Amino acid sequence: MARSIAPRRKAINTLLAWSVGFLIFFPILWTILTSFKTEAAAIANPPVFIGFDWTLENYQAVMERSNYSRFLWNSIVIAGGSTVLGILIAIPAAWSMAFVPSKRTKDILLWMLSTKMLPAVGVLYPIYLLFIKFGMLDTKIGLMIVLMLINLPIIVWMLYTYFKEIPGEILEAARMDGATLREEVIYILTPMAIPGIASTLLLNVILAWNEAFWTLNLTAAKAAPLTAFIASYSSPEGLFYAKLSAASTMAIAPILILGWFSQKQLVSGLTFGAVK
Amino acid sequence: MFVKNALCAATAISLITTAGSASAETITIATVNNGDMIRMQGLTDDFTAKTGHDVEWVTLEENVLRQRVTTDISTKGGAFDIMTIGMYETPIWGANGWLVALDNLSEDYDAADILPAMAGGLSHDGTLYAAPFYGESSMIMYRTDLMEKAGLEMPKDPTWTFVREAAAAMTDRDNEINGICLRGKAGWGEGGAFITAMSNSFGARWFDMDWNAQFDTEAWANTLKFFKGMMDESGPAGYATNGFNENLSLFQQGKCGMWIDATVAASFVTNPNDSTVADKVGFALAPDNGLGKRSNWLWAWALAIPAGTQKQDAAIQFIEWATSKDYIELVAANEGWANVPPGARISLYENPNYQAVPFAQMTLDSILSADPNNSTVEESPYVGVQFAAIPEFAGIATEVSQEFSAAYAGQQTVEKALSNAQALTNDAMEAAGYR
Questions:
Q1: Does B57 contact A at CB distance below 8 Å?
Q2: Are B206 and B151 in contact (CB under 8 A)?
Q3: Transmembrane ranges (chain A) (predicted)?
């Protein structure tokens, strides 16, 4: 039976939730507001949040200086490509771990996750040398592979958790009806796990979109995504905060919009199986 | 007639063949994000029109760029055809054989016109490895109105004692005016650069001739105590975390009486579009302490070609274009003389148009008073004014500056910061095989 919550407590909880939400969103809001200020207004101390002269000059300057559409396209291809590659590998891997577990399955899962514990810079030189060897420096395919490998442990873990929630009896019934392994995965398992796969997919796109270490270190001019676009406006010798904010807003806008429209799937997927 | 026609035809064919062999390339250039570099990017069409070569820019924040180009050049990655590097990296990379020697520049380029201090700092064993795009030193920028109000007059070459007294006299806490703004932020290129340059004027040095750390000397104790004492009296709150940008922001808003920092800042603080005190700024040499060394540094952002690039000819053409006298004229025509890249060429300071710029002479005087080969009062084994040009320096100096910043913030004493700096520097130098 659901507990009844007193209206006053509900109001306090709501207020608290909105306050925490606002606190988390505040840096993004400040960035967006700063992008509409002049450079002089951007450095004003104390900062002015509302009563300033709004201007689009920073966006104009950024568009004139940088080829935004190329950075955006690279981000879309790299984030999308690494996600598709990752899902293609993770679904069979998670299936085998969820439905045909061995004694070492848990160990393998933990080992996969342990690769996330190594600081990225620790393998920068080996990866860089491999990229030179295979001619993949400053290529989108190279970054897709690296980002796919980086996020693969998380995808496999998430899918494994979703698959474990699916009753094995359904798959057994399909097998008894003569379904092959391929048919079982494609026609039975995947449709049932769509919410989980969708949220994994979205999370992976967000992680790949925001990844800044490898995308800065393995690209130059051709494959550089929006992270490099932002980095090009940061400077320790010169006050370009308003332009940096404009570039940041342009870089995060697509992923914010995607996150906004898919928040229902994202939340339902992430909380899938949380309550039993 | 036939012979004449035949000769004309042969000449035409040879010209076409020559033009065909010098095919257009696309070169990739890694650079930092600052006003001069962005201006250069905007003028690249002029280079393309003259040579037919296209340029692709990779612009990164200074520290990100350092890591990025170091990774690429040390692995011979070949991602860039030209790299923007500084005076710290150039002699080290030149010695490693990582850079193309710029010893065959064209006669029109006039390499002898490069300021000797810049050419010296960008060379190894007398060979130039990077061409200076712009050079800088550091100097005092001060508020003429506040100085006058305090009843003082800034000498052209002040001492630290005068600067401290003037800072105290100009400080007006009620009106949020700090007598002096200086870098205290951790980082070898931020607060580390400032305190090292300042220590030179106090008779301190990083290493003795046997590469032993010297932070246990009286000279270093005097430097740090003077800095902290003056900043506690007259500096802004939280100065331990202030770097170039924070101080620039304070100065432009009229909250600093004096600011000792990079000479390139002069064009920012005198720009009425950004600065509220643009018409009230004076300039003076960085202070000394009567020991024969001033506290100004020397730096250049320079263009270098990584060894192994497949587009060396086009890269040299670009460097000759970007660091030429003609380029300076091009910027002056488009943006005015105050915005030309300073500190690289002698001829710029002989130009009457540039001499009319208020900070031009002081910039030159500051550059000329810094000697990277003889920066300390006592003899030292390293080259560099605000750094020691050895590969280990950046890592060590970052840690040392963190210790110093902790002392500025009151998290530890000056004595503790110096003893920690002494220990960590000696440990690092021993591990690197210097001791």
A1: yes
A2: no
A3: 12-33, 71-96, 108-129, 141-163, 184-209, 240-261
Q: Is the pLDDT of residue A186 over 90?
A: no
Cα separation, A144 vs A152, in Å, equals 12
Other Cβ atoms less than 10 A from the Cβ of A119: the count is 8
Say what the pTM is: 0.86
Is the four-CA dihedral B147, B152, B155, B159 of positive or negative sign? negative
Whose tokens are 């992680």? That residue is A207
Chain A nearest-CA distance from B18, in A, is 30
Interface predicted TM-score of the whole assembly (ipTM), two decimals: 0.83
Residue pairs between chains A and B whose CB atoms are closer than 8 Å: 97
CA atoms within 13 A on the CB side of B194: 27
Chain segment B245-281, per-residue pLDDT in tens: 999 999 999 999 999 999 999 988 998 988 999 999 9
Short-list B256, B246, B286, B240, CA closest to B405: B240
CATH of domain A66-232: 1.10.3720.10
CA distance A237 to chain B (A): 6
- Is-contact A74 A224, C-beta < 8 A? yes
Q: B195 and B118: one domain? A: no
| Residue A241: C-alpha distances to residues A58, A232, B251 (Å) | 10, 12, 16
On chain B, the residues whose CB falls within 8 A of the CB of A221 are 28, 56-58
pLDDT at B19: 42
> Are A44 and B189 inside 8 Å of each other by CB?
no
Question: Domain range spanning residue B235?
Answer: 138-297+374-431
Considering B307, B325, B355, which residue would you say is the last residue of a domain?
B355
- The model's pLDDT over A83-110, given as tens digits with 9 standing for 90+, comes to 999 999 999 999 899 988 999 999 999 9
